[in-house]
Amino acid sequence: MATLAPLYQTDIPGYPVHRGKVRDVYDLGDRLMIVATDRLSAFDVVFPDPIPEKGRILTQLSTWWFHRTGALVPNHFITSDFAEFPDALQPYKDQLEGRSMIVKKARPLKGEFVVRGYLDGSSAKSYDETKQICGIEMLAGLKKRSPFGIPLFTPTTKAEEGHDLPIDFDGLCHLVTRPLAKQGRDYAIALYTYGHNYVFRHGLILSDTKFEFGLDENDELMLIDEVLTPDSSRYWLKETYQPDSPKAISLDKQYVRDYVEQIGWGKEPPAPRLPKEVIDGTTERYKKAYEMVTGKPLPEL
């Protein structure tokens, strides 16, 4: 099986480009091209080591979910089939094939739309300190990884640099207007619920995930960026999950988070170098998540 060499940054001349933490976004005029590189971001800091196959997994899994949820929530996806890309991009097949998609243009909303089904990550820390999560009063006695019973909407800011910060619903309304906050919240909860129920039947638990939304040329809200990937979500192997147990195996970048916390990194730039076993272990977890969600191996090139 042919594989792409790790790609830390693309170089496609002739088009304006914006480089995010993970994605390089090229302006094609009436559309955008989003390239998922193999860069890794954790705790909102980009790491110096690429994760082989990561960009391809993110693109292929997002493609799968965009097709599956398009009737539920409008999205920006057009194609990820490189044969359908403009002729001017065909010479850059080695950089683009498998890890890029053409999408509709959108004006991104400023907030991130996070939905949680279980007490973990930053929500667990907030609960331990205040018994609140994003301003929502929670019941006493919850244990780490306890299910909430219903999805909890916990938005954040979207920082160009530094850390995203949790906000309450009113804070999100201030950023994006109340009607858009309500519509985005409803879309996000519907997507999380659909995704959770689907992967649960296939041996995974979707603990939490984040979505981004934007406005199209008609000011209609649509899902943008990525959807239900190991970069934007926490996935656990269902057979290893128990509330208040550290034994749940994560198929996402929690593996990297655990490693850098163990070595005492302060979660500020620069990020540390990663050993080969952590790099390879991350690729392995992302690939397993793809295979369990879609029921098939990562496509050959």
User: What fraction, in percent, of the residue positions are helical?
Assistant: 25-40%
Indicate the mean pLDDT: 95
- Give a short account of the largest sheet: 7 strands, antiparallel
Q: Topology as H/E string?
A: EEEEEHEHEEEHEEEEHHEEEHH
Shape: globular
The CATH architecture assignment of the largest domain turns out to be 2-Layer Sandwich
- Roughly what fraction of the amino acids lie in strands? 15-25%
Structural class assignment: alpha+beta
CA-based gyration radius: 19 Å
* CATH hierarchy, class of the largest domain: Alpha Beta
The CATH topology label of the largest domain is D-amino Acid Aminotransferase, Chain A, domain 1
Number of helix segments? 7
Question: Superfamily at the CATH H level of the largest domain?
Answer: ATP-grasp fold, B domain
Distance between the termini: 7 Å
Low-pLDDT residue spans:
none
Strand element count: 16
Overall domain count: 2
Could you describe the 3D structure shown?
This protein has 301 residues and is α+β, with helices and mostly antiparallel strands. It folds into two domains: 17-106, Phosphorylase Kinase, domain 1 (2-Layer Sandwich); 108-272, ATP-grasp fold, B domain (D-amino Acid Aminotransferase, Chain A, domain 1), CATH 3.30.470.20. The protein is built from seven helices and 16 strands. The protein has helices spanning 54-69, 93-96, 121-130, 169-176, 178-200, 254-262, 276-294; strands at 17-19, 23-27, 31-36, 41-42, 45-46, 77-79, 100-104, 107-108, 111-118, 132-133, 136-137, 147-153, 156-157, 204-215, 221-224, 233-237. Strands 8, 9, 12, 13, 14, 15 and 16 form a seven-stranded antiparallel sheet that branches. Strands 1-2-3-7-6 form a five-stranded antiparallel sheet. The radius of gyration is 19 Å and the shape is globular.
